[in-house]
């Protein structure tokens, strides 16, 4: 039987009519859930508008300078982008599973799926750290700092940029390990249940670093082999073309000298015969497709200078857009990890039930939007060259 409490004003309140998870300004759990979901959708609309500005900048600059995107796309590793796409798609599955498990009061499954989502996010960041550090080594930086030199020797071995990007995750991993050891020593079950999945999630960052390093090194090796093959092919082609031109010239000269006109043309006074002989030689060259008209004169079309794509004002602008779009997306991933850790702690505490699972659902909506943005970023930046 429900018991009533009398406040200082003499009003009776049923303590079971207002559960602890229900905020005082809501009458029912359904009202609280619907209000929270509406607020989350309004927030996500602002996020979509925010990224829309970046997509507009991408579209405008691509329409103005398509050759810049063709040139710069060769520096983007499609394999790394595809791996991150698959990781984020799987994280959407685990996040949706966590929402359903929280609704069904499956507390262990909720904790496991939240930990899996955090682990996928850490793998994503690890792969992205390798990708960023490789571009930093090459000088593929935003406008104002861009200094890529194709002739410069590339850095081999462990990048100091990658080491710098791994410092904070290493500190986090060490902290989680210390927390787990402390919880084991003092026998705190709650801390142990929280620390164990977080240790695994923090370690997944270095799984992403290892995976990204292997793929990046393999791509660099393929590029080096392809470049060497192209250089050898160009040299062979030039040598073959030169030999063919010399042989053709010798053949034409021999034929002309053996002909009657050739013999007559040996006399300097026979200028008409010489002109006729030159005309016949030009006609033979045109018939074989080897005749090239001389455009050495002043012509604005042929004298137009080529566009230097590898410059701070062109390629640098592309990488400014690239770092803005992918960097802000990575920041959203980091924010999502922080909120997911908060949910994991609450799930271990068993705060969620069939009437109160809104926070998990709200964060799930945020996570799906972040994944959806990457689904657009991957083809636009990595696949469309």
TrEMBL record:
E.C. number(s) listed in UniProt: 1.9.3.1
Enzyme kind, highest EC tier: oxidoreductase
Keywords for this protein: Membrane, Oxidoreductase, Transmembrane, Transmembrane helix
Membrane topology qualifier: Multi-pass membrane protein
Stored SUPFAM superfamilies: Cytochrome c oxidase subunit III-like
Gene Ontology BP term (one): aerobic electron transport chain
Gene Ontology CC: one annotated term: membrane
Presence of the UniProt keyword Transport in the record: no
InterPro entries (UniProt xref): Cyt_c/ubiquinol_Oxase_su3, Cyt_c_oxidase-like_su3, Cyt_c_oxidase_su3-like_sf, Cyt_c_oxidase_su3_a-hlx
Segments passing through the bilayer: 41-61, 81-99, 111-130, 158-182, 194-215, 320-345, 365-384
Chain ranges of the Heme-copper oxidase subunit III family profile domain: 37-385
Compartment(s) where it occurs, according to its Swiss-Prot or TrEMBL record: Membrane
Molecular function terms from GO: cytochrome-c oxidase activity; oxidoreductase activity
PANTHER family noted in UniProt: CYTOCHROME C OXIDASE SUBUNIT III, NITRIC OXIDE REDUCTASE SUBUNIT E
Family of the protein in this entry: Belongs to the cytochrome c oxidase subunit 3 family.
Protein name in UniProt: Cytochrome c oxidase subunit 3
């Amino acid at each position: 039987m429900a018991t009533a409490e009398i406040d200082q004003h003499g009003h009776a309140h049923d303590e079971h009519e207002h559960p602890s998870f229900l905020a005082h300004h809501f009458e029912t759990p359904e009202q609280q859930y619907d209000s929270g979901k509406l607020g989350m959708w309004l927030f996500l609309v602002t996020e979509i508008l925010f990224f829309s500005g970046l997509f507009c900048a991408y579209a405008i600059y691509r329409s103005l300078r398509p050759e810049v995107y063709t040139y710069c796309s060769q520096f983007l590793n499609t394999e790394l982008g595809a791996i991150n796409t698959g990781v984020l798609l799987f994280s959407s599955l685990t996040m949706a599973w966590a929402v359903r498990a929280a609704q069904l009061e499956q507390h262990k499954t909720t904790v496991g799926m939240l930990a899996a989502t955090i682990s996928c996010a850490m793998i994503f960041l690890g792969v992205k750290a390798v990708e960023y550090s490789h571009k930093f080594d090459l000088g593929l930086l935003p406008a104002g700092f861009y200094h890529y030199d194709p002739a410069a020797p590339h850095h081999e071995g462990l990048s100091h940029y990658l080491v710098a990007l791994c410092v904070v995750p290493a500190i986090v991993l060490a902290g989680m390990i210390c927390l787990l050891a402390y919880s084991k020593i003092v026998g705190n079950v709650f801390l142990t249940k929280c620390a164990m999945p977080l240790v695994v999630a923090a370690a997944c960052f270095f799984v992403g670093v290892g995976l990204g390093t292997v793929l990046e090194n393999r791509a660099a090796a393929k590029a080096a082999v392809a470049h060497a093959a192209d250089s050898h092919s160009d040299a062979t082609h030039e040598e073959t073309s030169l030999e063919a031109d010399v042989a053709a010239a010798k053949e034409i000269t021999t034929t002309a000298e053996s002909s009657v006109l050739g013999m007559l043309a040996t006399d300097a006074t026979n200028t008409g015969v010489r002109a006729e002989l030159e005309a016949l030689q030009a006609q033979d060259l045109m018939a074989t497709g080897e005749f090239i008209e001389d455009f050495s004169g002043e012509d604005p079309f042929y004298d137009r200078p080529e566009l230097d794509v590898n410059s701070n004002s062109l390629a640098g602008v592309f990488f400014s857009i690239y770092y803005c779009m992918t960097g802000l997306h990575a920041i959203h991933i980091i924010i999502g990890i922080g909120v997911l850790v908060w949910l994991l702690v609450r799930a271990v505490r068993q705060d969620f039930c069939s009437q109160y699972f809104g926070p998990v659902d709200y964060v799930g909506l945020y996570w799906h939007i972040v994944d959806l943005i990457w689904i657009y970023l991957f083809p636009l930046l990595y696949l469309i060259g």
